[in-house]
Amino acid sequence: MKPYILALDLGTTGNRAIVFDKRQNIVSSFYEEFPQLYPRPGWVEHDAEMIWKSARSILSKTFKKISITKIASIGITNQRETVLLWDWRTGRPIHNAIVWQCRRTAPLCERLKRKGLAKMIHRKTGLFLDPYFSASKLTWLLENVRGAKKKAAAGKLLTGTIDSWIIWKLSGGRLHVTDPSNASRTMLFNIHTRAWDKSLCRIFRVPRRVLPTVVPSSGVVGRIDKRIFGHELPISSVVGDQQAAAFAQGCFGPGIVKNTYGTGLFMLENTGRTPRFSKDLLTTIAWSIGDLKKTEYAIEGSVFVGGAAIQWLRDGLGLFKHARETQKIAESISSNHHVYFVPALVGLGAPYWDPHARGIILGITRGTTRAHLVRAALEANAYQTRDILEIMRKQSPKPFQALRVDGGASANDFLMQFQADLLRISVERPKILETTALGAAGLAGIGVGFWKNKEAFNRLRRIEKIFKPRGNALVGNRLYAEWKEAVKRSRCWLP
């Protein structure tokens, strides 16, 4: 067996390529950011060609450091819901990709709600009628890009989330695929039949012929074209980023919950082979290993803005140069002094599902400083996490003993300790924070026999630090009550 597994993590703000050995040690890592495009307020786009250029660049750097001949296979994980259309003959996108954060299709979703379609869509997909998901974005592309509808009907266009696009490019145009975890986020996929749904495609006016073939999350689906890097390489996993993180965190059944502190916040609990539905949270597919019939489901709370709020304070307001500074800044004051930041910068996701909410900062006085704003942004991550966990606790058949965390902001000790204090359960931070890449590597490794099964893979998981609750629970409850009041004031800001 070759000694390494490669994971390509296609994120919202950048791409990362990480090589792991059989003990889950990182032996190589390269990262590149790509531009975020904001053509109008509330609109978010990506240049898909730039994403491909970045992915190809970091893979080239990886293979210069570690020979491609020493890598057993590659796993692909990606930002979900972001979608594009491309011409399969020219290989060029017909428009920028529309990002999961984009709110341009809120009016379309409202029209479908008024038609009484929300319940049926939720029953089939586990999703709520919201601009977050891919289907309404595809409708917008087909209706607003000149000639798109006609080309799609003629079979001249292909569509997919970013995993589909990059795999198509890596395979030299031979593979047009996705997996159930990504397909289940499009709002066109029936999670019960595990197939594209005719009626949903009709509602959103998306021709089924443009959609990718759905393959298992783990298992060889094809190979990287030899012409790109000089050698073929099996592609043996495709999985959405949050499901990949849950796999790396050992979320293999009810009662184990993980939260990712990335651009957004994403909490997930595996519900096994049976989907569990919620009026506030999403029901989604976790993964399929080897066979689409062996599908596992999950319940998920998706918060649109987590680390993106810190990014906005850095880039939009210039309050600091590096995110790592925020811990020291937050700890420079003794409390939040009743300053709250509701980061509804692109509306509110779970459990509110309000595309018309907007960000607000409350409690500002003459004594308010940048430290209060930074602390309020960090605390907002913790409050939004409690919003989700409160609901999951009521619905899960097993009690949660700890919250398993990952993502960039989980490296912030102030935030993790505040999170433990607020939730009154332990917070476990793993040694490897790049769990999205690790999960993709795990599924890829199982797909080619690098690891025997998910249990063998999970036995290698290592904890770096455990944060245990401190202080008085009443203080946390008071802070949380004030947060809930702040959220009320951000709701339905836009007509």
What is the number of E strands?
24
What is the subunit arrangement here? Answer: single chain
The gyration radius over C-alpha positions equals 22 Å
**Structural class, from helix and strand content?**
alpha+beta
Number of helices: 17
Provide the helix percentage: 25-40%
Average pLDDT, all residues: 94
Order of strands in the sheet with the most strands? Answer: 18-19-17-16-22-23-24
Tell me the strand percentage band. Answer: 15-25%
Uncertain segments are none
Main beta-sheet strand count, sense and barrel state? 7 strands, mixed
Outline type: globular
**CA-to-CA gap between the ends?**
59 Å
Descriptive account of the structure:
This protein has a seven-stranded mixed beta sheet. Strands 3-2-1-5-15-14 form a six-stranded mixed beta sheet, with helices on both faces. A three-stranded antiparallel beta sheet has the order 7-6-9. It is 35% helix and 24% strand. It has 17 helices and 24 strands. The radius of gyration is 22 Å and the shape is globular. Helix 10 packs across helix 15 (435-447) and helix 11 packs antiparallel against helix 13. The model has no long low-confidence stretch (mean pLDDT 94). The chain is α+β, with helices and mostly antiparallel strands.
